C-alpha cells in the first residue's frame, strides 16, 4: 500500500514542480499502473529491432507512434500506424514512421517510436472521478458514447467505493442490460470492471489533489477491462474538509439543546408582536416544565419571570439560548453565551448570509467555534420538541406528540409542516428550522434523532447539504435503524438557480444527490406534499417481511390503478400460487377475479372483505396488503373501516404485523372512514389510488436499504 | 397514385396466391420502390461483364452475392463480397463467387450474381409499422441498436402520418439529439427521413393486409435515408373496422339520451333497496322536470306515478330508457325499447361480458344495432346530467352544477368522482358510467360534450379504448375547443394484466397510447387524484397567451420547490428582463431576490404581495403567475387570499385574464384561504408546491396541443 502511494506521490510532486495541473499520458499510465488500473502496455523503441522485441512482448496487434517533443500532431506527420500484426511489419513500420517524421520536420528531435498494445472491442464504458463541493470525491460510471453524452446515463458513488458500491454501479445505469450481453454480444467481466472502478475511487480518495480523472473509453469485455485513454487533472489547493465535532460531543450537546432543562431567551419581551415576546409566550403557554430565563437589558420581570441583563448573570446552568435580537447584537450576546458555557444558541434573527452579510455570519461562526457553542440558524423560526412541551419559536405553538421528527431549511416550508401536522393530526417529536446552517446541519439532527427514543422517523427538507459526505455517512448508519426521508429542493436546473438566489448555497448535480442519497438508505421525496405524507404514513406501517404484495379490491377499476401504482413505486405484485388462489376464490363470487389483484367485486357484504383480508394477513407468503374499497349500501364506508381495523387488530394481537394501506372510492363518507383507519394505524386515502401505494413503496425502499426485506 | 397501388396490389395478390404471409426481399424491394421508400439498388448479373456494367450504373462500392435456389447460406458458401470498388474487381469477384459456389455445391443451379448498392454510415434508425387492436395501423420510429432494444426509445403515430406527424417523430424520441448531429457527426436529412416515415405509413394505411413492416436498419445521413433491410408480413384476414354511426346521428341521439325530456325506468319499483327504486328516487328527488315513466309488469302506480307494463304502452315519446332489471330480461325489454323507437338504453345491469357472459352481451348489441338503440353499459351506475337535474343512477344523487363532464369505465372510480366532486365542491355538467362499453364509448361522449355548452372540460377514465382510432380522430378535433383529460388505467405491465382480468379488454402497448393521446391533444393523467384535480382546476384557469411563467413568493423555500415543479411540468420560467426586474425590486426589500422566482421575503405586509402581483398581471410579457404564500402575522392567510382575489378581479374587469395558481405554506388557516381562492376561480393548494404547478402545467399542455399558446 505504502509503495503504490509513494509512486503516485512522487509523480504528482513532479507534475506540481513542473508547474502543470494535467498529467501527461506516460505519467497517467504510471499512476494507473501503481493502482492496478489496466491501461494499454507500451514502451519506447529507439531502433526497429527494439520495436519488434517490445511488440512481441506486449502481444499483437500493436500501435506505433512517433515520439518527438516537436511533433504534436502525430497523425498529420504520418507518425501513427495502427493494427501492426507481426515483427516484420513492426520493423518496416518503425522505418517508415521515422522517415515520414524526418520529412515532416527536418529539425525535429526524433526520440523514437512508442509501441503500444492495441485495444478495442467489447463494450465501451467510461469511468471517471469528480470533486463535488458538498460530497468531495466521487467515482462515476456510464456507457460510452451516446448513452452518456445524449442520454446522460451515468451513476455516481462516494470515493472510495466498496466492492458492493462498485458492483452496484454496473446495475445503476438505465442501460445496465448492455453489460449483461445483448444482441449476441458477450457479458462483460463484472469483477474486472468493478475492481477498476474501486481502484480509481481509491486513487482519488488517497490523493485529494486529483480533482478530475477520466478513463474514456474503457473497453470492457468478457476477458477484462482496459482504459484506452487516461486523463488526470489536479487542483493543488483542494478544499479542506469541513470541521466536524466528534460524534459523542454532538450527541451530548444536541441532547442538551433539543431537550433542555433550562432555556434563556435573549431579547425576551413583554411587548406583544415582538419576536422575544412570542418566544416567551410559546415557552410558557406550551407547558414547558424547565427553567426559563428572560434576558433583557432592562432586566426586571418579563411575563412574570425574573429577567437578567445577560446570561452571565443567571445563577444556574443554561442548556440553550434562544436569540430574539437584531443581527447586529448577536455576536456580542453569543460571546456571553460562550462565556456562560451554554452549549447551544438558537439564532432566530435574519440579516446574515441570506441578505449578503457573509462577514456577519462568519463572525458568529468564529465565536461559536471559539467557545464551543453549537449554532442553530441563523434566519430560522426556531424549533419544537414536543415531548418536553418545548416551543422555542416565534411561530404558532404545536403540541401533538408523536414520533416524526421534521426539519426544514426554509421557514415557509416549516410553516407548511406545522399546518399539515395539525390538519392531519400528525404527531411529531420535533420540528426544527435550520435556515442558513452556519453550524448545526442535517447530520447533527440525524445524530441526535438516531438516539432519541421519541423519534421513529426523520424527515428533512433541504436546499443543499453543506457537508454531503458527513451526511451520507451518518444517514447510512441511521437509516439502518430509522427511516430517513429527504426532500432535496433545487432538483432541477431551474430549481437549483432559485436555490442559489435564496440561500447562496451551491446546489449540486442532482444525479449525484440522487445516487448518494439512495446509497445512504435515504427515502427521497420529490415534492412537499409527498414528504409530508411520508412523515405521516411511514411510521404507521410495520416493516414488511418480504416483497410479496397483494391487492384486495371491491372495485376492479381501482385494482387496475393500484397495480399501475405498484409498478410506479417498485412494488412486486405476488404471483398467486394456485392453492392460495383457490382459497381466495372460496370467498368471492364466481365472476370475481382471483389472481392478483383479488377482485371481490363491488356488491359484496362486509363478510367478503373480512374473509379475504383475514386470509391475506394469515398466509405467510403474503407480506403486504393494499385494499381497494368501493362504497356501496351493502358495505358502507364506516362499516368497512371498522371491520378492517378489527381484523388487523386481531392479527396484531397475535403478533402478526403486516403493512396494510387502503384506497377508498366513494362518496364523502369515505373521508371519515379514511381518518378512522389512519387513526388506527392504517394509512388510508380517499379518492386516490396513488397515495396509499406511494407510502407503501417508500416503506419498502427504506426496508430494502436497511437490509430488512 | 393508382399505379403505385396497383403495383403493390398485384405483388400482394401473388404472395397470397403462393400461400405465403411474408414477402421475399425482391418483393419487399418492389413494394418499397412503388411507394418511393429508398432501398439499395440492385440487379442480377449473369456474366462478369453484366455485373460490371450494373455496378457502374448503381455506383461504387457494391456488394456481390451468389443467387442460387440451392444455396441458402451464402456467406458459408463464400458467395458474398462486400465493398467492391471498381469494374475490374467486380469482374474478378463475379468469377471468384461463381467458382466458390460451384465448389460448395456441385449440383446447385447458379442463377448468377446479385449486384447491390452498398449502404452504411450515418445514423442507424428503425422505421416500422404495426397493427394495434385498438388503433389499427401505426408507424414506429426509433434509433437503431441499443436505444430501441435496451432503452425502448421508440415513438408511434397513427398511419397514415401527416408531414407534421412524421417530423414530430424525429423529436419524439429521448435520443432526438442524435439526429441533429452530436460528437462531430452530421445532422440527418430530416426531410428525407420524415418522407420515408410518411411513405411507410401511407403504404400500410392503403393495404390493411400488411400487418407488420420493418425497415431495419435504415441508414440516415445528411444526404438521405435508405433502408438496408425490408421485412413485410401480411395478415390476409385483417380485422374489419368497428362500426361507427355517423357524426350527426351520434349528436342527435346523444342529445336525446343525455338531455332527455322523457325517461322510462324499466324495473321501476316502490321497494326500498331495489335498484329500480333508487333510480326512481334519484330522478324524482333530484328535481328532474321531464316526464318519468315507471315500467313494471305489475303496472299500477310507482312512487305516485302511473306505471306501464312495457315502454310500448307509454303514450308519449321517450328519449331514454334506464334498465334496472336482471341481465336475463334485458334483451326482451331492449327489443320493446327498439320497437318504441327510443334512441338510448342505459344498461345498469351487470352479468354480461364482465362475468364471462359474452354471448349475452353480443345478443343485446345485436338488438341495439337492429333497432338503432344506442347502449350505455351494461354494468354501469348510470349517469348524471346536472343541468337537467337528472340523476339516472342508483348511486347517491349529485346536483352541483358546473362545467366538468366526467366519465369512468369502472363503477368504483365513478363513486370516487362523485365523492371528490362533492367534497371539493366541484361543479359538474355530467358524470357517466361506461362499464362494458358494448356500444356508447368515449368518443360518443366526446362528440356530445363537444357541442354541449354546459361542458367546458371533458375528463375520462378508461381501461381500454375499443376504437382508439375513432377516439383519436374525435379527440383531436374536440381538444382544439375544450380540454380533454384521460386517465388510461393499465399503463404498466402489471396494471394491464389487472385490466384484462377486470374487463376482458386487451390493454394496448402503453407507449402507443401515450403517443397517440398526446398527438390527439389529450392531457393524460397518470393517477386518479391527478385526474380529479385536473377536472377541478383546469376549467378555472384562463388560457395562457404565452409561455412566460413568473413565480412570486413570500417563502424562498417554496420558490425553489415551485421551480422544480415547473421543470417537472414542462413550464418555462421567464428570463426576467432588466427593466421588469428593476420594477419588481422597487416593491421588495433590498435583501429579497428579484429574478424569477421573485422572492419578496417572508415578513412582508399585504401591500408587497399586492404590488408584485399587480405588476405580474399588468406586464404583457408575463403570461402566468405562480404565487407562493408564507403564513405570517403581518399578512395572515385570509388577508392574503382576499387581496389576491381583489387584484385578480380588478384585472378581470379590465379584460386581463391570466392563469394564477397558488401554493400556501402555513398553519391550518391556509386551508380556508385555499378554499376561498378556489371559490373565486384561483386554484390554490395548502401544504403543496407540486399541485398548483401540476394543474397549470396541464393547462399549458392542452393550450399547446390546441395551438393556442
- CATH homologous superfamily annotation of the largest domain in chain A: Succinyl-CoA synthetase domains
Total E-strand runs of chain A: 30
Principal-axis shape of chain A equals: flat
Any idea of the CATH topology of the largest domain in chain A?
A: Rossmann fold
Structural class of chain A: alpha/beta
Multimerization status: homodimer
Which helices and strands occur, and which strands form pairs?
The structure is a homodimer of 709-residue chains.
Chain A: H1 2-17, H2 25-34, E1 42-45, H3 48-58, E2 62-67, E3 80-84, H4 87-104, E4 112-117, E5 123-132, E6 136-143, H5 146-149, E7 154-158, H6 163-170, H7 190-206, E8 210-220, E9 225-227, E10 230-234, H8 247-258, E11 262-266, H9 275-285, E12 291-295, E13 301-302, E14 305-306, E15 320-323, H10 327-339, E16 344-347, H11 358-371, E17 374-376, E18 382-385, E19 390-393, E20 401-408, H12 411-423, E21 428-433, H13 442-450, E22 457-462, H14 468-478, E23 484-488, H15 493-503, H16 510-519, E24 523-525, H17 528-537, E25 548-553, H18 556-568, E26 572-573, H19 578-585, E27 598-599, H20 606-618, E28 624-630, H21 637-653, E29 660-665, H22 669-679, E30 684-686, H23 690-705
Parallel strand pairs in A: 11-12, 11-15, 15-16, 16-17, 20-21, 20-22, 22-23, 23-24, 25-26, 25-27, 25-28, 28-29, 29-30
Antiparallel strand pairs in A: 1-4, 2-3, 2-4, 5-6, 5-8, 6-7, 8-9, 8-10, 13-14, 18-19, 18-21
Amino acid at each position: 500500500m505504502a509503495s503504490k502511494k509513494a509512486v503516485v506521490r512522487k509523480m504528482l510532486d513532479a507534475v506540481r514542480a513542473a508547474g502543470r495541473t494535467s498529467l501527461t499520458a506516460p505519467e497517467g499510465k504510471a499512476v494507473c499502473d501503481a493502482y492496478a488500473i489496466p491501461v494499454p502496455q507500451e514502451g519506447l523503441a529507439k531502433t526497429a529491432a527494439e520495436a519488434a522485441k517490445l511488440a512481441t512482448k506486449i502481444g499483437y496487434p500493436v500501435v506505433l507512434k512517433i515520439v518527438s517533443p516537436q511533433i504534436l500532431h502525430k497523425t498529420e506527420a504520418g507518425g501513427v500506424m495502427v493494427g501492426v500484426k507481426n515483427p516484420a511489419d513492426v520493423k518496416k513500420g518503425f522505418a517508415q514512421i521515422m522517415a515520414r517524421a524526418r520529412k515532416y520536420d527536418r529539425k525535429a528531435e526524433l526520440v523514437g517510436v512508442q509501441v503500444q498494445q492495441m485495444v478495442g472491442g467489447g463494450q465501451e464504458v467510461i469511468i471517471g472521478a469528480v470533486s463535488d463541493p458538498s460530497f468531495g470525491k466521487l467515482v462515476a460510471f456510464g456507457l460510452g458514447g451516446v448513452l452518456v453524452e445524449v442520454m446522460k446515463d451515468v451513476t455516481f458513488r462516494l470515493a472510495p467505493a466498496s466492492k458492493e458500491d462498485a458492483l452496484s454501479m454496473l446495475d445503476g445505469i438505465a442501460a445496465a442490460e448492455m453489460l449483461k450481453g445483448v444482441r449476441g454480444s458477450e457479458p462483460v467481466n463484472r469483477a474486472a470492471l468493478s475492481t477498476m472502478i474501486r481502484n480509481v475511487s481509491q486513487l482519488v480518495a488517497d490523493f485529494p489533489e486529483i480533482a478530475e480523472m477520466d478513463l474514456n473509453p474503457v473497453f470492457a469485455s468478457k476477458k477484462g477491462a482496459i482504459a484506452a485513454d487516461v486523463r488526470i487533472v489536479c487542483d493543488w489547493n483542494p478544499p479542506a474538509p469541513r470541521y466536524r465535532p466528534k460524534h459523542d460531543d454532538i450527541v451530548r450537546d444536541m441532547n442538551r439543546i433539543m431537550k433542555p432543562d433550562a432555556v434563556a431567551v435573549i431579547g425576551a419581551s413583554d411587548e406583544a408582536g415582538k419576536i422575544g415576546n412570542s418566544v416567551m409566550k410559546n415557552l410558557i403557554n406550551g407547558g414547558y416544565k424547565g427553567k426559563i430565563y428572560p434576558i433583557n437589558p432592562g432586566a426586571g420581570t418579563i411575563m412574570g419571570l425574573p429577567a437578567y441583563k445577560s446570561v452571565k448573570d443567571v445563577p444556574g446552568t443554561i442548556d440553550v439560548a434562544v436569540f430574539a435580537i437584531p443581527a447586529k447584537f448577536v455576536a456580542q450576546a453569543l460571546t456571553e453565551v460562550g462565556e456562560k458555557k451554554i452549549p447551544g444558541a438558537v439564532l432566530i434573527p435574519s440579516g446574515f448570509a441570506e441578505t449578503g452579510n457573509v462577514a456577519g455570519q462568519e463572525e458568529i461562526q468564529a465565536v461559536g467555534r471559539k467557545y464551543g457553542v453549537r449554532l442553530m440558524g441563523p434566519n430560522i423560526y426556531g424549533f419544537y420538541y414536543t415531548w418536553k412541551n418545548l416551543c422555542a419559536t416565534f411561530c404558532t405553538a404545536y403540541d401533538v406528540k408523536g414520533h416524526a421528527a421534521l426539519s426544514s431549511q426554509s421557514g415557509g416550508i416549516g410553516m407548511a409542516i406545522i399546518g399539515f401536522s395539525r390538519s392531519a393530526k400528525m404527531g411529531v417529536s420535533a420540528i426544527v428550522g435550520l435556515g442558513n446552517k452556519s453550524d448545526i446541519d442535517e447530520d447533527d439532527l440525524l445524530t441526535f434523532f438516531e438516539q432519541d427514543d421519541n423519534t421513529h422517523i426523520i424527515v428533512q427538507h433541504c436546499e443543499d447539504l453543506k457537508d454531503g459526505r458527513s451526511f451520507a455517512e451518518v444517514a447510512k448508519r441511521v437509516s439502518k435503524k430509522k427511516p430517513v426521508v429527504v426532500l432535496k429542493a433545487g432538483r432541477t436546473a431551474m430549481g437549483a438557480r432559485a436555490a442559489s438566489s435564496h440561500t447562496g448555497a451551491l446546489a449540486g448535480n442532482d444525479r449525484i444527490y440522487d445516487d448518494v442519497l439512495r446509497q445512504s438508505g435515504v427515502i427521497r421525496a420529490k415534492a412537499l406534499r409527498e414528504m409530508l405524507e411520508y412523515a405521516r404514513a411511514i411510521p404507521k406501517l410495520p416493516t414488511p417481511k418480504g416483497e410479496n404484495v397483494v391487492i384486495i379490491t371491491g372495485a376492479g377499476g381501482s385494482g387496475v390503478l393500484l397495480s399501475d401504482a405498484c409498478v410506479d413505486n417498485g412494488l412486486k405484485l405476488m404471483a398467486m400460487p394456485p392453492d392460495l388462489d383457490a382459497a381466495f376464490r372460496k370467498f368471492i363470487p364466481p365472476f370475481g377475479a382471483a389472481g392478483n389483484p383479488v377482485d371481490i367485486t363491488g356488491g359484496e357484504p362486509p363478510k367478503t372483505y373480512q374473509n379475504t383480508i383475514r386470509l391475506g394477513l394469515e398466509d405467510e407468503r403474503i407480506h403486504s396488503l393494499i385494499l381497494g374499497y368501493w362504497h356501496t349500501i351493502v358495505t358502507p364506508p364506516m362499516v368497512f373501516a371498522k371491520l378492517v381495523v378489527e381484523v388487523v387488530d386481531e392479527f396484531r394481537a397475535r403478533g402478526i404485523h403486516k403493512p396494510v394501506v387502503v384506497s377508498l372510492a366513494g362518496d364523502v363518507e369515505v373521508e371519515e372512514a379514511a381518518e378512522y383507519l389512519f387513526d388506527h394505524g392504517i394509512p388510508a386515502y380517499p379518492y386516490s389510488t396513488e397515495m396509499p401505494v406511494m407510502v407503501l413503496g417508500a416503506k419498502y425502499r427504506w426496508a430494502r436499504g436497511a437490509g430488512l426485506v
